[in-house]
Write a structure and sequence with these properties.
heterodimer, A: six-stranded mixed β-sheet, five-stranded antiparallel β-sheet, B: mainly beta, four-stranded antiparallel β-sheet, 11 strands, 49% strand
Chain lengths: 114, 113
């Protein structure tokens, strides 16, 4: 069975600083990996996804993530945080060619300080 | 274009009552998913429809929960004999086809008193 672990339920950074949100997964077969963002009182919005091919994936709003099979990781980064990045971020996994359901981590709440 | 819509946005009910939650997917999307998000947790899968049929209902917690999608578009999640532990945000998502990107609605916040 797949699972996702997000290290750090809360992360706080200063505006302009590097954002690093950690995600590790467990899967017995090659996974599809996703990062979603949830702003207050809004639905989940896809930031980026990895399916196959290039392991460095670029998403919206300047975010990117790198799939590292050897580390079973898919950490999310952004070089310079903006106040508007404050939100909750969820990492998710699904099976390639298998179940279409997403398995989510517990989420990381990002705070950006001025 | 219009995204996934869910109604109502909030539902307060009493323990033991029956509730229905509605999801309107993006037009043309054949796949529809229901998830439940409890406080402080990530969304948890409930059920997935491909067209009118439930292709995977392994996430439904018990037989009090049931979902339908009779015409392959709108879906209704039905909860019988609600319990306080059912309180959560119920999320609906749709995708053009199975395994495509899932687009989420804003959710229905269910509170069982």
């Amino acid at each position: 069975a797949q699972s996702v672990t997000q290290l750090g339920s809360h992360v706080s950074v200063s505006e302009g600083a590097l954002v690093l949100l950690r995600c590790n997964y467990s899967s017995s077969v090659p996974p599809y990996l996703f990062w979603y963002v949830q702003y207050p009182n809004q639905g989940l919005q896809l930031l980026l996804k990895y399916t196959t091919g290039a392991t460095l994936v670029k998403g919206i709003n300047g975010f990117e993530a790198e799939f590292k099979k050897s580390e079973t990781s898919f950490h999310l980064t952004k070089p310079s945080a903006h106040m508007s990045d404050a939100a909750e971020y969820f990492c998710a996994v699904s099976l390639q060619g298998g179940s279409e359901k997403l398995v989510f981590g517990k989420g990381t709440k990002l705070t950006v300080n001025p | 274009g219009a995204g996934v819509s869910q109604t109502p946005s909030n539902k307060v009910t009493e323990k033991g009552k029956y509730v229905e939650l509605r999801c309107d997917p993006i037009s043309g999307h054949t796949a529809l998913y229901w998830y439940r998000q409890s406080l402080g947790q990530g969304p948890e899968f409930l059920i997935y429809f491909q067209g009118t049929g439930a292709a995977d209902d392994s996430g439904l917690p018990n037989d009090r929960f049931f979902a339908v999608r009779p015409e392959g578009s709108v879906s209704t999640l039905k909860i019988q004999r609600t319990e306080r532990g059912d309180s959560a945000v119920y999320l609906c998502a749709s995708s053009h086809e199975a395994a495509d990107t899932q687009y989420f609605g804003p959710g229905t916040r269910l509170t069982v008193l």
